[in-house]
Amino acid sequence: MRRLALAVIGAGLLLAPLAHAQEESETPLPRPGWSFDGPFGTYDRGALQRGFQVYQNVCANCHSLNLVTYDDLGPNGPGGGIGYSEDQVKGIAAQKEVTDGPNDQGEMFQRPARPPDHFVPPFPNDQANRAAHNGALPVDLSLIVKERAGGLGALPWSANGADYVYDILTGFKNAPANDKLPENSYYNEYFPGHHIAMPPPLADDAVNYGDGTKATTAQEAHDVVTFLTWAAEPTMEDRKRNGAKVLIFLVVLTGLLYAAKRKIWAGVH
Amino acid sequence: MADTAQPGPMAAHGHAGGTRRDFLSIAATAVAGVGAACAVWPLVSSMNPARDTLSAGAPVDIDISRIQPGQQIIVLWRSRPIFIARRTQDQQNLVKADKDAGQLRDPQSNANQQPPYAKNVFRSVKPEYLVLVGICTHLGCIPEFVPQPGGSLGPSWQGGYFCPCHGSRYDLSGRVFQGVPAPYNLPVPPYHFVSDTQIRVGENPPDSTFDFNSIDQI
Amino acid sequence: MAAPQPQSKLVRWIDRRLPIFTFINHELNEYPTPKNLSYWWNFGSLAGILLVIMIATGVFLAMEYTPNVNLAFDSVERIMRDVNWGWLIRYIHMNGASFFFIVTYIHIFRGLYYGSYKEPRELLWMLGVVILLCMMATAFMGYVLPWGQMSFWGATVITNLFSAIPVVGNDIVTWLWGGFSVDNPTLNRFYALHYLMPFVIVAVVGLHLMALHTHGSNNPLGIDRKGPQDSIPFHPYYTIKDSLGLGVFLIIFCIFVFYFPNALGDPQNYIRANPLQTPPEIVPEWYFLPFYAMLRSVPDILFIKAKLAGVLTMFGSIFLLFILPWLDTSPVRSARFRPTYKWVYWLLVIDVIVLGLVGAHRPEGWWIVTGRIATLYYFVHFLILFPLIGIFERPLPLPTSISAAVTKGGGKLAGASAPMEKP
């Protein structure tokens, strides 16, 4: 009786994921597999740095990354950064300019960015960004990977935010014959509705990788998604590492508690 | 309702299994205690300065090329006012002569209020530029820069700093006079010359490891 | 056996002036508890511990959070990235809310199965419903604080509900908002109240425990303790059992916190609130889904518009719980001895899960009918089935006593048939 009831509850709870899975996209999302997948996942530092390059040279022309500071890339960053030294961080920051002030004359002025500054956005505000893009807003990318995750009911092995962004970046195709593509839209296999306002951003050799990795579109997409996943959650490695310690400790403690409970209750049963 | 419960099966338990049960209980309690302490630690640690706060406390580079002789600018480092004063040749000579040393509390700068490379009569790396933390060592007001001799501070005033809150006085090297409420010389922050026109406040020169947190009185 | 006389002189000095040690000894150590409590009785203490965890993490989060519409979202991200261990404290607080509801719902359903709401524990049950209401208010306001898309739009939808009240509805909504829409004044007052409510919950939990200690715990057999042979002292038996339950709970909890921290949340809340852009689906957190389903299920009834009817139904479903002790007419407490009620109980469980699924989906197609049937069943279950089953059911004979049932192998009739017991 109880078993039957529990089975029904279990079935009910398993039905829940079907509710949300693939509801928006008709085409199933492929899952390329990531270095940060799973309970022991880590961020591949090489991919992070190449991904940063892709972001800086391609995406940053339209998309801001407001929640990340240049300092975050270096050794003082959350989770230890993406592997750049403090001097490299200073150099990266100094390539951009920020508005500061007012000075003693009451004027605002431009100065090179410093490591504690947040990533300099491509446009001073959203309205300027929209105006430059036919009314469409290239969204801030700091949390894009978390925003596009599966949500309640998504099973751990189903497509997540990183997969989604990767699929969008590699999913640009020629529109099929019967598709009416509106103006300022591009056909994308995996974008819900297939009509996306962003032109294909990546191409082979769009970026010059310093470490010799071949810069195919897929590689660029893989690297920039790794970087963006890091940007959304730079402390992920800390989280998983501490999780292992905590769980091992808890298993040991619960084992002790169980033994103590059995001993104390031995007379009563 | 009985206050204590002593059902039959319990009595047989006695001391036969007593030590094993006690060891388990003690072990479980001890491990749980360690766990509780480890669980509390992140909460306590979260109150320490966050990364962005520490990052904002990083050294600042100041352009000193526009400071005229006899002038002072004030910049912020770690939310504190930093005085950067450019001493004139006359002022440098005055300091070197050190005639008022007898009226100072700590003319030799023996108290730990400055890095070792600023422990001299000028209390600075170069005689021409004075870098101080502009917080009175009495109760924390910001002293006024009064470089002109005489004036309302009396005929014997040679120039220096005057704190309006309780009347403390410091000389042109930031050394405190006797007979005023302030107990220590004005602190000197870690700094060094990146170039002839740039001072980096908050960072020691490469050969020094002075810890600013060790000073006696901010 | 607990030593009745406190040991050290200091303890005795304090105890004579403020008998806190005697109190703890009496209520925690010696306190007689039925010896047959199952693990379903762990969930009360789990809820209490989770309340402490939520308050502790909440206080430290409050040190870093800024309740202003322009700064709130960024302050939360600062906690995640820059504050030492901030990501951990935030994830514990976020998942702790979900687990607080999981634990409390199980605790409630335990009470429903074993008749823990029946005489003399009616007030104990009602205080519990008060705690549930306070938890729901606290959780709702807490979810608004990060100022994500779901924070803002969930707040908009739920506060708009109050406009369904005739005559004064719109004034009440404006008063709640402190403005013309959910905006900075709303966020600020939700922050103040979210900080306050948990301490109200602590006070009501205190009353809840006082009511509990008056007659002691119910037990799986649903029959009263007859004497010392039916009880064991709370310490060490249930202190260790509760600790074990806590250990198991923490393992499951930490798996979520450290490995699936966002599984129970809505990814859309990682998007900054945008008053000019409604998300494709506005869904509350999972623990509100059954109530959300009821809210949306009710159509126009007679002269009452659907919106008001839905609001009344939703609040009615919770207030119904208050009068539960008087709806159940059965003289027998535990479902173990109530063959008909046992089956019907599981129907309620399934119904609540179905309601949750309905709440997660857009109200279209089959979901509408399903939602209406499930909502109707909820009220039929409590208002019709509860009284009727109690009257017409033939319960199984109850055991003579707890210890008799326990020593003879548990739960079934011991010895010669005894007349049916009135608990």
Could you list some keywords that capture this structure?
B: 218 residues; alpha+beta; 3-stranded antiparallel sheet; 9 strands; elongated; C: 423 residues; Cytochrome Bc1 Complex, Chain C; two-stranded antiparallel sheet; 16 helices; 2 strands; 63% helix; disordered C terminus
Compact summary:
The complex is a heterotrimer of chains A (269), B (218) and C (423). Chain A is mainly alpha-helical.
Describe this structure in words.
The complex is a heterotrimer of chains A (269), B (218) and C (423). Chain A has a domain at 44-174 and 201-257: Cytochrome c-like domain (Cytochrome Bc1 Complex, Chain D, domain 2, Orthogonal Bundle). Chain A has 8 helices and 4 strands; from the N terminus they run H-H-H-E-E-H-H-H-E-E-H-H. Chain A has helices at 2-20, 45-57, 86-94, 126-131, 144-147, 161-170, 217-232, 236-265, and strands at 97-100, 109-112, 186-187, 195-196. Chain A has a two-stranded antiparallel sheet with strand order 1-2. In chain A, strands 3-4 form a two-stranded antiparallel sheet. The longest helix of chain A has 30 residues, at 236-265. Chain B is α+β, with helices and mostly antiparallel strands and 218 residues long. Chain B folds into 2 domains: 15-45; 52-214, Rieske Iron-sulfur Protein (3-layer Sandwich). With 423 residues, chain C is mainly alpha-helical. Chain C has one domain (24-407): Up-down Bundle (Cytochrome Bc1 Complex, Chain C). A two-stranded antiparallel sheet of chain C has the order 1-2. In chain C, helix 3 (43-62) runs antiparallel to helix 9 (184-215) and helix 6 (122-144) crosses helix 12 (306-322). Chains in contact: A-B, A-C, B-C.
